[in-house]
């Protein structure tokens, strides 16, 4: 389980892990959880469809009992969750994955796919991005299925990525997840990793950085992968010769901050209601934070409890999270600086 702020590289890492599994011929599927009214139904449908697509390459082995069972159960699971138009060349198994109760059907399908993969000396992985948005029912079902697979020595794995609050949601889902999963916090890079991220890709095609330019860019990036990418790309557009100089770096940072301030940050700020914005303004006084929910309430001249619904909405929108009890922080690096740069009036 990979957790971390926006733009630290969770999705890139998840895709890389998937690439490794695929290179070993493992059966993998990837889903991205979403918030919203039809999200739960949609994600089940995507899961079932992806599973059918990934299973197609085993259709030629339907003569072997274990693969035939897998293909039939995958077909059942697909039919149960509304997938049409993909045939695996077998009849569905009416006794497997046909209840419509995701907990039961997921266990059936995972069991039968994992048994076939075990016979093929391979594994089965479900990759889940934006896992903080997964609905409770499916989350609990996946945790139970992972537990069940572990007990039965089936090669099935859930690999998830999401915002910092999702491991706590997993822990709430059942009593065993703490031992069930391996949790990794993905954070900003070290100073030297940040320097390398600027220098190595540039050098591979020629250009180099002066020490002053590099120092400015490392500082402006906050060592966050997404900002390294942005400022590195801006440098490319701005500089006319190399080694890149201090002035080039200043111009690149300025230009890119302007662009972030008219797109990346406002796209998030605009999702908040006026009350929620007031709350974020109160938080921004603490810089990168975290803020105390009590202090934030004091700044707004109200009680912690009366702000609860706004805070909950901001968490649901993925704009803030609670690092510890009584604390609140932005999920997007640089958000507090943006809010202050805008010099918004309370
Ligand atoms: N290993 C990497 N190599 C090159 N660029 C990277 C790498 N990791 C991250 N990045 C850069 O950082 C950006 C953000 O990465 P990514 O989308 O994986 O973050 P994230 O943690 O999934 O963010 P979010 O929470 O917003 O989904 C990428 O678009 C890319 O520009
Ligand atoms: Mg991502």
TrEMBL record:
Ranges of residues in domain Orc1-like AAA ATPase: 1-158
Pfam families on file: AAA_16
UniProt xrefs under InterPro entries: AAA_16, P-loop_NTPase
SUPFAM superfamilies linked to this entry: P-loop containing nucleoside triphosphate hydrolases
Taxonomy, superkingdom: Bacteria
PANTHER family from the UniProt entry: ATPASE DOMAIN-CONTAINING PROTEIN (PTHR34301:SF8), DNA-BINDING PROTEIN-RELATED (PTHR34301)
Protein name: Orc1-like AAA ATPase domain-containing protein
The species this protein was found in: Paeniglutamicibacter psychrophenolicus
